[in-house]
């Protein structure tokens, strides 16, 4: 009898929420922004940002381009990657048609077919200016005050 009580879950109650105004749900779907940030994966490990920009020319209007060189800790998968945020969504299709499967060749002659896809994280990193540390050099200032007095 005791085992039956432990194994039985209480019955779940279903609660239906009815929305009289169907426009509210449509508006929330419209608020989603269009995907404009893409990632180019499987770039050659020896590739630099300048070489990539040179090979991507002519590049449509972009407002964000970030290049990440290879990470040696991921040994068998030593690839570089780049994130690009386009201003116009139409440019993404043209870019994908041109560079998805495009073969990049490194300095040794090895071929690396690139993969172009939407970035899983669509936000772009903001350029932050480093604030000057207010306490920087305060020890030296105190020593100078002590020596002068």
Automatic annotation (TrEMBL):
<dbReference type="InterPro" id="IPR039722">
    <property type="entry name" value="Upf3"/>
</dbReference>
<dbReference type="GO" id="GO:0000184">
    <property type="term" value="P:nuclear-transcribed mRNA catabolic process, nonsense-mediated decay"/>
</dbReference>
<dbReference type="Pfam" id="PF03467">
    <property type="entry name" value="Smg4_UPF3"/>
</dbReference>
<dbReference type="GO" id="GO:0045727">
    <property type="term" value="P:positive regulation of translation"/>
</dbReference>
<keyword id="KW-0539">Nucleus</keyword>
<dbReference type="InterPro" id="IPR035979">
    <property type="entry name" value="RBD_domain_sf"/>
</dbReference>
<feature type="region of interest" description="Disordered">
    <location>
        <begin position="1"/>
        <end position="34"/>
    </location>
</feature>
<dbReference type="GO" id="GO:0005737">
    <property type="term" value="C:cytoplasm"/>
</dbReference>
<keyword id="KW-0963">Cytoplasm</keyword>
<dbReference type="InterPro" id="IPR034979">
    <property type="entry name" value="UPF3B_RRM-like"/>
</dbReference>
<protein>
    <recommendedName>
        <fullName>UPF3 domain-containing protein</fullName>
    </recommendedName>
</protein>
<dbReference type="InterPro" id="IPR012677">
    <property type="entry name" value="Nucleotide-bd_a/b_plait_sf"/>
</dbReference>
<comment type="similarity">
    <text>Belongs to the RENT3 family.</text>
</comment>
<dbReference type="GO" id="GO:0003729">
    <property type="term" value="F:mRNA binding"/>
</dbReference>
<keyword id="KW-0866">Nonsense-mediated mRNA decay</keyword>
<dbReference type="GO" id="GO:0005730">
    <property type="term" value="C:nucleolus"/>
</dbReference>
<dbReference type="InterPro" id="IPR005120">
    <property type="entry name" value="UPF3_dom"/>
</dbReference>
<keyword id="KW-0694">RNA-binding</keyword>
<feature type="domain" description="UPF3">
    <location>
        <begin position="34"/>
        <end position="141"/>
    </location>
</feature>
<dbReference type="GO" id="GO:0032991">
    <property type="term" value="C:protein-containing complex"/>
</dbReference>
